[in-house]
UniProtKB/TrEMBL annotation:
Source organism per UniProt: Bemisia tabaci (Sweetpotato whitefly)
Protein name (database record): Protein kinase domain-containing protein
Key words of the record: ATP-binding, Nucleotide-binding
Superkingdom assignment: Eukaryota
Gene Ontology molecular function: ATP binding; protein kinase activity
Amino acid sequence: MFSRIADPGEDYTDYVATRWYRAPELLVGDTQYGTPVDVWAIGCVFAELLRGAALWPGKSDVDQLYLIRRTLGDLTPRHMHVFRTNEFFRGITLPTPDTLDPLENKIPTDDRLVLDFLQRCLDKDPLRRWSCEQLLHHPYFDELLFDAALITEEPILSSRRNSREKSRTKLGPGLPHLAHNGRSPTAGIHQVSSVAVLPTI
């Protein structure tokens, strides 16, 4: 998603991901990050689906850090050190929130499993943040009517083939069949989406 595997000791670029979904380690400019940044983004998107609005719509990286601190409290000592020594933030002081607005107040649900799932995704410390594998075993998913063990690839592919065959027979003898060339029928159409609700970066 946002991260990749690095060789031991290799530094990453510190600017990846759209601001609203960036983990604290990215916002402060830490170049030693990994897959936990993807889990943070999952948490932000999940919260946005629940709220109908972005969880932390920061107007700048510093504002984004302020909003995160206002909800989750102080950053880790490492992240504060990286922020203070980052040339990009020279002369800038990270504002301290006067009051806290905890996650429970920002998510419209009384479901403790939902809140716990979010907290596992949005742990400030990437070393404590849950992995995707851990999240898949979170009790939140126990209530979903889904059994992965019952699903195999072959029946799904057979079902799709049967569906395509039925669609072709409905065309009738007088209609030509389009040759399949591996491209989508809309491959040449440019999709335009609004970016009015996205932050400037």
